[in-house]
Design brief:
CATH architecture of the largest domain in chain A: 3-Layer(aba) Sandwich
Largest sheet of chain A: 8 strands, mixed
Largest interface: A-B, 20 and 24 residues
Shape of chain A: elongated
Low-confidence stretches of chain A: 379-384
Oligomer: homotrimer
Mean pLDDT of chain A: 95
Distance between the termini of chain A: 31 Å
CATH class of the largest domain in chain A: Alpha Beta
Helix content of chain A: 25-40%
Chain lengths: ~450, ~450, ~450
């Protein structure tokens, strides 16, 4: 199957449902930046795509950082004065602060309170809290529960372990005609939250699956990593590989029903930035383009000044700007099949440009060639997109002077990239156009 | 008479009426891309300006194209079952499809129908149809007539001729101080339609007449050609001449009462583009600037990538975007004397810039010179435009550092070009300014 | 005291009141482009700052101009037919046209009228008129008075003197670490008008006083000069010094309660232009940026093409665009303490950027450094601006690649310059950043 067929045969409903189902399968697992939850997640992904699972030992120095101890938790409960359960890790893994140290202790409500977290503005939601780099522990509760706690003695039981182990991540590489790479990176370090990490994991897995099924110009690298420490670790151990990345996307929060938001790479006008903006601008649907800022997700590391990679961030509702962010309300009802499918499709449309863009030379540049005598005026007779294609022929002919790429021509013509690509193919076939040799 | 006097003495009413009258004189003639209608049109134009009439034989190869057979038509009628006239070329030359092959045949309504054309949305108008490069024939009817045709036998009589002959065009060259050229091109290939071709023909003829009456820096070339094949033919046979074109305009559809629309040259920021935009922006009237696109009129050929000439398109209602386009409703009532005169004036204002722009050097660049002691503060005492001119003196002095042309200064100052030009003349006279020698 | 403390300790109310009081002290003096009024004004300023008072003799040639005769006036009255006072220089110094020649003469109302000036649209205001470079005289009256003048014989007594003398200006230079200069220029040539000259004189005097109290990177030059002829004289006699000016502002009309207006230098994108625009854009208050135009105040001379200095113009209501301009209504009630203080503060904020901007290099450019282990995440715990500062750390780290100055980073980050400067200081202290050595 050719790459273009992925677009022609794209079934939004089927893709959306399958993406949502995959997110549902992964939802119950308790992930963190290290530990068995990540391993279990990666094993499920590895059933669908050729995934290498890497282990980087605790204590490994990665630039200014050190791979931390591995964290796992068997059980954790907080009981009230009468022995009743106030919070239980087994009920919802958000109830325990991630990276909580082991605790087996009784204490008064006053002693306990600094370790309790809630969201006063959303009294029924459980917040998500972590303490990766400072020894601490805590329970996260609905504010309504926290407010009703009686005085008395509380029993804290946290059967967690912080031990020498490793940081785990997954890497799927699909070789292409060239060793130059397209990077897709998502994080797999959040426990039971759907938009903020599983939407990105599901879409990235499906992208790898689809791209494995077609010939590729580029080599594609899909990373499933813990946020921040994962990208830092990968970059520290793959500096040469990073130099081969021509285009990249961090993908997360792509399942809610808000419009897409794209944050440009640090360089701001790289090919990936232009390709995403063009695809979004062609859809006649709302979207937002933002300039790079040094906070957010792993693009912070890919775009640190020492790397400055052409990597943007694709989300729908962006980082920290939706109320459900980092809470139990970011659940499977918060992500929608159509939004997941739309995000997947959008990235495939971007891949179409990355795979097929190029510069061509009009072999008949003095006045227009006579298209009629070559049958090019009628070529698309039965299709409704005939006008687009007729215009596309004229645009490609006029601007194929070696100085304008197909994407640039599509941008000027305000025509869909596939129309420009199809016109280019027809003109090459008719002997009116040839690829511009690389300089 | 100096060029500037053309502007000072411009009489909008008289010019508008004369332009409309000239269009009316040419209206009845049946023009096509070849044939006697074009010859007759050019002979009438030649009474007013020094016009060379060129004949290019059928079969001449011009780049990817071939000059077609010459088409002429004596008579053409379509009669209904009772012998009544349904369509008659003698009544309105739009009733016959241009380049219809000879036909003398009876046929049923069903056989006839594929050869009948109408405009369902405008049931009283006759459409304009052509078939230059494919042997065909047809009649064009009001939709109300077409809908009421009874079954029965129809009689088609088309006394046309498609023969070896020539393509005819007219060329008027007015030599200037330099051999560098300004090109004005209009098409003369449409039968009885007023805005889409006669408005351009009338304005171009008058421009040539006016420019013949004054000294010129540039050499002016006015082309009256059939659309597409005419410009391709001229370019194919005048490649060296094309290299001398510094500025150019295709002029058509300049008679309707909509605001001016200017389509930039392919390069987009050439002098002609900047001059037209400046003149339009100074008028405090609506106008539209569009970027180049590879469809429209003969600018498609002048701006093909092998030529890429600095040629823009001036229209009022643009190509294909007014309902009367290519129909019998594009008649003499559709074009207005004031609009024709306004278009003529606009081009003369552009010529003012092309003829007089230049860079100057302030000979007293350290602080301002004292204008009062040179009488320059009072120079315009009695005129209402005194404030413009006083400001123009300061602007020209400050920005005449060799790096800013008069047009650039006018643009910064938001002052009319004639005010800047007049200030420049005064300052040169006062010894405060001199022309920047060419590099 | 460090420069930054001028900002931290800025007391808007106290500054505003002191500025208004100083303008009030100077208000009664009759200034002109030469004469004792300017000397008296400069002597009062010299009590507060180290001011050199310069005298340039009448007849000195300064570029295209000549220093004029010195003008002083003892008394001037206009009496009506019954001997009643119509206008008296002693009542309001605007009643006499500045540079009026001596006159002792009786004349009819008809002979007198060409010498009387009023403002018909503001019948109670006295206009401000001058005749520096043409021998003339005149009285300025409320229009209501002028209209009620009876016929009869009038007595004109003008005890003025136009004599060989000198042009007087004041110059305060505060040496800094470098000989490169910041120029602040205000005019001191207007008689009793508050916004159009005293607001600028008061703010400039206070700026000099404050800058004298702190260490300075730049050398600061404050000029108190007569308009036009003063700047031309200074430039003509200080061409070498002008070459040392890196940044400059003309300051006037900074006391009315309209929003600030900044007119860019001729070059348009110099550091002073960018610094002022950034400071204004950070305030969430209305302001206007205008491009350079060759009329206005002394920036006309500083930005003449032979000098083309990076000097902008700061005003509130701009030149000629407020009704009170050049009339008796531009009095001490027209200028407001808060507006004077706001203008002073704005310039100090600009000085903060000019003094402290620079480019730095991130010493840990591969991925982000771990801020937590260096205590940089908690450094601002108690302050409300913690979020600004945390973000500022990330912005400064990411963009300190030698190619982005602190101002450019502040602009991208949309953070106040002091936050960026403070983050920079902290990061240098933590060994994560070092100053980019000059090229």
């Amino acid at each position: 199957m050719r790459f273009e067929h992925l677009l022609d045969r794209f079934d939004t409903d089927a893709e959306g449902n399958a993406l949502h189902q995959f997110a549902s399968d992964l939802f119950p697992i308790c992930r963190s930046i290290t530990g068995n939850g990540v391993r279990q997640t990666l094993k499920i992904i590895a059933k669908r795509i050729p995934l290498e699972i890497r282990e980087v030992p605790t204590g490994t120095e990665v630039f200014d950082w050190t791979v931390p101890r591995e964290w796992n938790c068997e059980a954790a409960t907080l009981r009230g004065p009468d022995g009743e359960i106030v919070a239980d890790f087994a009920d919802h893994n958000l109830q325990l602060m991630s990276y909580s140290v082991p605790v087996h202790q009784k204490m008064s409500l006053d002693e306990l309170k600094p370790h309790l977290h809630s969201l006063p503005d959303h009294p029924d939601w459980i917040p998500y809290r972590t303490s990766y780099y400072r020894d601490d522990w805590g329970f996260c509760l609905p504010h309504s529960v926290l407010e009703s706690l009686p005085d008395g003695e509380y029993d804290v039981q946290i059967d967690s372990a912080l031990q020498v182990g490793s940081l785990t991540y997954g890497e799927c590489v699909l070789a292409g005609d060239t060793s130059r790479e397209i990077l897709i990176s998502c994080h797999v370090c959040h426990p039971s939250m759907a938009n903020d990490n599983l939407s990105g994991v599901a879409v990235t897995t499906r992208l790898a699956e689809l791209m494995e099924s077609v010939p590729r110009h580029y080599t594609y690298r899909f990373l499933f990593i813990p946020g921040t420490i994962g990208s830092i670790t990968w970059l520290a151990q793959n500096e040469d590989c990073a130099k081969r990345i021509d285009h990249g996307l961090v993908v997360t929060c792509v399942g809610d029903d808000d419009h897409p938001t794209y944050k440009r790479s640090r360089q701001g006008t790289t090919m990936i930035d232009r390709a995403v903006e063009f695809v979004l601008s062609q859809r006649n649907l709302p979207f937002v383009m933002e300039n790079f800022s040094p906070y957010g997700y792993d693009e912070r590391q890919y775009c640190s000044p020492g790397f400055d990679l052409p990597v943007g961030l694709l989300t729908r509702s962006p980082w920290g700007r939706f109320p459900e962010y980092h809470s139990s309300a970011d659940d499977l009802t918060f992500i929608k099949p159509f939004a997941l499918a739309d995000s997947l499709r959008l990235i495939l449309d971007v891949f179409d440009i990355l795979e097929n863009d190029g510069s061509y030379v009009n072999l008949n540049p003095m006045c227009e060639p006579q298209l009629g005598k070559r049958g090019l005026y009628d070529m698309m007779g039965g299709k409704q997109n005939i006008k687009d294609l007729r215009m596309a022929l004229l645009w490609v002919l006029n601007y194929s002077d070696g100085g304008h790429s197909l994407l640039e021509i599509a941008h000027r013509a305000r025509l869909p990239f596939p129309a420009i690509r199809a016109a280019c193919d027809k003109l090459v076939e008719a002997g009116l156009l040839k690829a511009q040799p690389p300089e």
